[in-house]
Amino acid sequence: MKKNLLLFFLLIFKFSFGHYFSQSSPIDSLIKMKYREDQFYFGTNYVILESKESNVQQSDFSSQINLGILRDFPLNNNGTFAFALGFGSSYTQMKSNIDFDTGKLSLQEFNSSRFASLVIPFELRWRSSNHNVYSFWRAYFGTQIHYNFIGNIPGLKKWSNSVSLNFGYNTWNFSIGYDLSPRFNYSNNESINNIRLFRLGLIFYLF
Fold first, then answer.
1. pTM to 2 decimals?
2. 139: which strand partners?
3. How many folded domains does the chain comprise?
4. What gap in Å lies between CA 202 and CA 34, rounded to an integer?
């Protein structure tokens, strides 16, 4: 009789609570806790000088290369929502009719200018992945703080910030970025001070 009662209660326990144990083993839970995505990035962008001054012109191809590392922090169990904080760098090359040595515009001559930046990126992330799926959709909205240095632009501001949206599937992802604050500061030309960089390109996330 006691054996029958024990068997009866074991069956009730199994059917009532067994699915909680079968859905997630301790190993699966540990994998989910350690699941992180897209912690290294490399990107290349086409750069547009966005200005209210109609006389600002660009020539050839202005570009930017950026790379860095991000620490991914999942916000839910399956890792579809996360935020990331990291450290990176970028190199920007522009060719325009702006003489950055004097802060004046030229109507005939185009000048090459360049600068490098250290970047602190922050991203809010959505993705359709989990620890078993490696090809997935992603949409990451981010903001970046730039420390600008090493360049041939005397009026380059040391600090600036920008926003970005990176989205795509698997390997190929589009990147859109825009400066929230101007990059330049010249006392003799306010129109150059209002210039912001608009960036359009590709970004590749690794590991």
1. 0.81
2. 126, 167
3. 1
4. 28
